[in-house]
Amino acid sequence: MTRFFARNWAVLLLLLLWQGWVSLSGLNSIVLPAPWPVLRDVLGNPALYLANTAQTLATAAAGVAAGLVLGALVAVAAWASRLLSGMLTPLGLIFSSVPVVALIPILARLLGYDISTVVAIVAVSAFFPTFVFVGAGLRDLPRGADDLFSVLGAGKAARLRHLVLPATVPNLMIALRITVPEGVLAAILAEFLMGRSGLGFMFREAASRFAMERALGTSLVVTVAAVLCFTLAHRAERVVRTRWS
Length: 245
Description:
The chain has helices spanning 2-25, 35-44, 46-80, 82-97, 100-111, 115-139, 145-151, 156-194, 199-208, 212-244. It is mostly helical. It holds the Pfam family BPD_transp_1.
């Protein structure tokens, strides 16, 4: 019990401040409900929250996987060719500078107003961090390893397969840790703006009819899901880095 309070005292303090603010100010529940009604809505409708959470997480996972693969492939292409590097790096910077919100109408016109556009939005959010971190890993090789491969007469393909790609794995795991929580939030944003299901749509639907317990309950579930995804990705990164070093 002591360990539980030691680890979660900040969250408990936030809940107490929230409850105290609502009680002392006398706010209407339409403006800000107390913590217990929000928790009661989450605990009282587990099937609804679990179904929408599963869909959002599945969409985020598909988008993050697509963004990781695309970002890694583009980084490898830029490493393999100076011409491609000169073309792809500026394009990547420009592409990353465009707000995701501005891309949603364009992608929706191209892909349709369905889950494929949500996946594409998540992939876009995961692409550039992967491109940057994998590109840095491709250039940050172990000292002397490249010279050793040169002495052995290894070609570019052999260097890529036996030296460069293995050396890049820790950077790829960093990209995974960074993009996973961002992917969840990007999926929520896309569902909020154009989705027909998932936590983002659930929040929009609840807010539109002033069901603030449901809206804040959705926000609570989103926060917990993002934190759990980040924790899992961070642990996976630590395991891989330990075995890779």
